[in-house]
Amino acid sequence: MDLITTGYGWEFLIRFLHFLAGVCWIGVLWYFNFIQTPFFATELGGEAKSAMTRGLVPNALWWFRWGAMFTFGTGWLLILMYIGMDGMSLSDGLMTRILTGGVMGTIMWYNVWFIIWPAQRDYAIQSALNVAEGKDPVPGTPEKGALAGRASRTNTLFSIPMLFFMGSARHLIGFNEGSNDMIYWIVALGLILAVELNAVIGTGTRQKYLASVSGTIHAGLGLLVVLYVVGVLVNS
Ligand code: HEM
């Protein structure tokens, strides 16, 4: 009964909901990036694109955006409970690791709700519906599609270090312990923001790593390694 009669039990249940929702969200994100988008680029995919955009994508986007919302909400609720109930401080090593993942997760949540979903709803899906009814596509659809594509690839990139740092919170003891060092946060936040801004406002050559699935995965692994090394160096 500890599960429902103690604060720790509730934290456990919320953490369980948190990663259920997280798996739903990141699962659909990876489906879009690793499976659906490459399929749309094939001949058969090109033929199926309009039907899929009208019939399948809206449902996939429902699970995607609400998965993101529940992951985000339960994640920050847990952080508030750790601070309020357990007296954990923001400068705790465990908190540094959680927040490194949480900051990336929060930017990813922003990308879903404020870039990818509006672009899909108001442009890609609406255009596919218009064309199916013999009307014109919504003006600006290719540009919005490209922006949403970069945001989606950037979320895939972030998903790798985000999961590493979140999972490391209780399972990689010793790393970034007791730090919350100013230098660590300046470098970490600077890098994370640079990656995000590059997706949203950059154009062309600086975004080459987002042009392929393999480039995106390598960039995600690269960011993980850099953040890890900085975390080790500031504590050595
Ligand atoms: C959106 C921002 C996010 C915030 C603020 C956040 C916050 C948290 C917090 C506070 C914990 C508890 C850590 C602990 O007690 O050790 C946690 C754990 C976890 N989170 Fe997140 N999270 C976010 C996004 C995600 C996403 C997108 C996923 C994707 C699957 C995810 C997967 C996990 C997993 C698997 C754990 C369990 C780690 C463990 O117990 O070892 N989180 N997260």
Q: Report strand %.
A: under 5%
Shape: globular
**Helical residue percent band:** over 70%
Low-confidence stretches: none
Q: In angstroms, what is the radius of gyration? A: 20 Å
Order of helices and strands: HHHHHHHH
Question: What's the mean pLDDT score?
Answer: 94
Distance between the termini: 43 Å
The total of beta strands comes to 0
Which key phrases capture this entry?
8 helices, globular, binds protoporphyrin IX containing FE
Detailed description of the structure:
The protein is mainly α. 81% of the residues lie in helices and 0% in strands. It has helices spanning 2-5, 7-40, 43-55, 57-84, 93-132, 141-171, 182-200, 213-234. It is globular. The termini are far apart. The mean pLDDT is 94. It binds protoporphyrin IX containing FE. Protoporphyrin IX containing FE binds next to helix 2, helix 4, helix 5 and helix 6.
Offer a concise description of the structure:
The protein is an all-alpha fold. Helix content is 81%, strand content 0%.
Give the topology, please.
Blueprint: H1 2-5, H2 7-40, H3 43-55, H4 57-84, H5 93-132, H6 141-171, H7 182-200, H8 213-234
Helix pairs in contact: 2-3, 2-4, 2-6, 3-5, 4-5, 5-6, 5-7, 6-7, 6-8, 7-8
The protein binds protoporphyrin IX containing FE (HEM).
The site of protoporphyrin IX containing FE (HEM) has 25 residues, from helix 2, helix 4, helix 5 and helix 6.
